[in-house]
Write a structure and sequence with these properties.
The structure is a homodimer. Chain A has about 270 residues and is α/β, with parallel strands linked by helices. Chain A has two domains: about 140 residues, Rossmann fold; about 110 residues, Rossmann fold, CATH 3.40.50.1860. Chain A is about 45% helix and about 15% strand. Chain A contains eleven helices and ten strands. Chain A has a six-stranded parallel beta sheet, sandwiched between helices. Chain A has a four-stranded parallel beta sheet with strand order 6-5-7-8, with helices on both faces. In chain A, helix 1 crosses helix 10, helix 2 packs across helix 3 and helix 4 packs across helix 10. Chain A is globular. At the A-B interface, helix 7 and helix 8 of A face helix 7 and helix 8 of B.
Chain lengths: ~270, ~270
C-alpha cells in the first residue's frame, strides 16, 4: 500500500538529474526523496539501447527496495529508450523527462518547427520526435546529437571560445531550419543555456525539461492523493555507484544545498 | 603450464587499446590475441581508483578464463591505478603502458624536463611521474589532465578550430615550462598528434606508449621462451561489454584490418 510519506525515487546516469531533483524540491518541498546517480557507469548517451535498458532496470530495482511511491527517470537517454519497458514491468507510476519536455515545446512553438538536441542515444531513439508528433501531427521536428556538450559541462567550460565554437559547429544546421523552439534534451544542457541561446538568437525559445517534469510529478501525485502535506521539508537521501566525493562537490553546486546523507552502493543485475 | 600458442590477453576501457593491439600485431604478427573492450563502462578516466580497480579485476578474471600466457593492460588509467594490485594477485606476467612510456621519455629527453598528459585519474595517480623519477631522479615532470581530448577523438574532431583551441587552452602552461618531451598518457591521444604537435612546436618530442609497450611485450615473451615462432598470422578474438556495432566500425579504422570474431559478454564481480 502506498502512502504519502513514502519517498519519490529518482535516478540518473550521474549528476545531471539533480537539475530535476532541484525543481522537485522547489515545487514540492515536503516530499521525501531518494536519488540514485549511477556514477560508475555514466555516461549513458554513448551506449546501446540494450545496455541502457539493463542499467535502467538495475536502477529501478534498487529504488524499489527503498519503498518509493513514484519513480522518476531523470535521464533523457534512459527515458527515451527504456521508459515503456520499465513502466510495463512495475506497479508504480513512472515519470520520464521526454513527455513533459515535448508538451512544453508544443505549447511554446508558434511556427510548428521544433528542434531537439540530446545525446546520440536519445536522438537515435526518436523519442522526442514521436512524443511531439503524438501531440501535434503537423509539427516539424529537427533532431541533432551534440556529444561534446556533456564533457564540456563536466569540464566546467560552459562559456568562452571553445564552448561557443562547439555550439556554433553543432547548431548552425538546425538554426537554418527556422525553428522557433529548441528542446534541451539532456539534463546537462541547461548549464550551457547562455551559449546555446547566443548561438540560436533571441527568437528561439529554449525548453528545459526539468521544470516541466516537476509539474508532471505534482499533477500525478495530486491525482493519486499521494502529495505529502507536511509543513516540514522532506528528507533527502543520495546513493551513488562510484565514490561520493566528486558527486558531492559538483552536486551541491547543482542543487544549491548540502548533500549530507550519501552512500556508495553496488548495483546487481540479479532479480 | 603456459605454451607459446596461448594467446596474449589485452584489455582496455574501450577502443583506445586497439592502438596497442595494432603495434603488437605489427611487431609480433604470429601471436594469438584476445582483446576485451569494456565498452559498457567506458570511460575509466573519470572514475575513482576503487572503481577502476574493481573493473580491472573483472576484466582480468575474464581474460584468464581464455587461458592467456600474458596480460596487457592497454589502458593508461587502469595501468596507473591497478597494475600493482593485479600483478600481485595473478601468476602471469602483466604488462602495463606506463613503464614503457616512462622509459621512452627518459631516453628521449635532452633537458630532463618531461610533460605528461592523460585523464584525470591517470594524472592524479602520479604513476608516470613516479615511474620517470624511478629511472631518473633528477627529471622534472609536469603532469596535466586533458579530459576533453577523449570525447574530441570519439567525436572525430581530431583537427580543426575546436581541437586546436582546446589543445591551446590545455597545453599553454605546460609548454611554458620548457619541456622537450611530452608523454601522450592516454591511448586516445595519438589520434590528436598533429594538433598537439602544432601546439607544442617542433622541438617537443611526443611519446606514444603503444609502440613502447609492444617492444616490452616482445622482450618479456622472449625472455620466457614464449614467443610464437609460427609463420602464419595469429588468431584475433574480440570481446566487448556493449553491443559490437560501433566498436567494429571505429575499431576497423583504428586497426586497419577486419574485426570478424567479436562477442558481447557480461562481466561479473563474482570470483
Amino acid at each position: 500500500m502506498r502512502s504519502k510519506d513514502m519517498p519519490i525515487g529518482i535516478f540518473d546516469s550521474g549528476i545531471g538529474g539533480l537539475t530535476v531533483l532541484k525543481e522537485i524540491i522547489n515545487k514540492l518541498p515536503a516530499e521525501n526523496t531518494v536519488y540514485l546517480g549511477d556514477t560508475a557507469r555514466v555516461p549513458y548517451g554513448i551506449r546501446s539501447p540494450e545496455t541502457v535498458t539493463r542499467y535502467s532496470f538495475e536502477n529501478t530495482r534498487f529504488l524499489f527496495s527503498k519503498h518509493i511511491k513514484l519513480l522518476v527517470m531523470a535521464c533523457n537517454t534512459a527515458s527515451s529508450i527504456s521508459l515503456d519497458a520499465v513502466r510495463q514491468s512495475v506497479s508504480l507510476p513512472v515519470v520520464g523527462v521526454i513527455e513533459p519536455g515535448a508538451r512544453a515545446a508544443v505549447s511554446a512553438t508558434r511556427n510548428g518547427k521544433i528542434g531537439v538536441i540530446g545525446t546520440d542515444a536519445t536522438v537515435r531513439s526518436n523519442a522526442y520526435a514521436n512524443a511531439i508528433r503524438a501531440l501535434d501531427a503537423s509539427a516539424e521536428v529537427f533532431s541533432l546529437p551534440c556529444p561534446l556538450f556533456v564533457p564540456l559541462v563536466e569540464e566546467g567550460w560552459t562559456e568562452g571560445t571553445v564552448a561557443e565554437l562547439t555550439a556554433g559547429t553543432y547548431l548552425s544546421d538546425i538554426r537554418d531550419k527556422g525553428i522557433d523552439t529548441l528542446v534541451l534534451g539532456c539534463t546537462h544542457y541547461p548549464l550551457l543555456k547562455a551559449v546555446i541561446s547566443k548561438t540560436m538568437g533571441p527568437d528561439v525559445k529554449l525548453i528545459d525539461s526539468a521544470i516541466e517534469t516537476a509539474f508532471a510529478i505534482r499533477d500525478i501525485l495530486s491525482e493519486l492523493s499521494l502529495l505529502r502535506a507536511d509543513q516540514a521539508a522532506g528528507s533527502r537521501e543520495f546513493y551513488v555507484t562510484d565514490s561520493p566525493e566528486k558527486f558531492v562537490a559538483v552536486g551541491e553546486r547543482f542543487l544549491g544545498s548540502r548533500i549530507d546523507v550519501i552512500t556508495k552502493i553496488e548495483l546487481s543485475s540479479e532479480v
